[in-house]
Amino acid sequence: MYLASNNKKALFVEKYVTCATLITLVRLVLIVPIVYFIQSEKWTDAFGWFVGAALTDGIDGAVARSMNECTFFGAALDAFIDKIFIISITVALMCSRHFTCFIPFWFSCFVIVRECAQLIGCVAVYWYCGSIEIRPLFLGKCTMFLYLCLTSLVLYQAVCKKSDTSLLYLILLVFIVGSISFAQYCYIAYKSIKAQQKLSNRV
Q: Domains in the chain, ordered, with CATH?
């Protein structure tokens, strides 16, 4: 999610606590029971809690727009928690004894590297340029949606104790869309840095 901020001070003059940010923070808190249930192999509980947490990803943005509470802090918090959420759940699944029955190891490594690279890149661009744009990108939203669908399917199949080829197709789809989305983010970051360099040269 993206919302423009012209300078670093903007972060400190906005309203921190809103209904939308509280919903976003709920998603952060829900990571703990989800990881616990995955590690305990209580798949039904893990599936239920994950679906509940996934729903908050769409609700917080809708609440922010409906209540006119869209802020740089809220957008940045939502994006950060999304990364933590994805990485935590993926690592938890990787550590599960039955993990390889559902998701290939290489795919989980791809997810973790992608999310970490985006997070580090976002921070780097912010400190280099003195500002950052946090706005919704269609492919980024698609990647998040597909990941949530994929993880829901993984947990559901764990509950049913079976796996089918539909999971493989969804994994490949997430990989393709996620790769294109990552390339798009890299291109945007590159343009931001080049624009800042030109501005610095003029000064």
A: 4-202 (1.20.120)
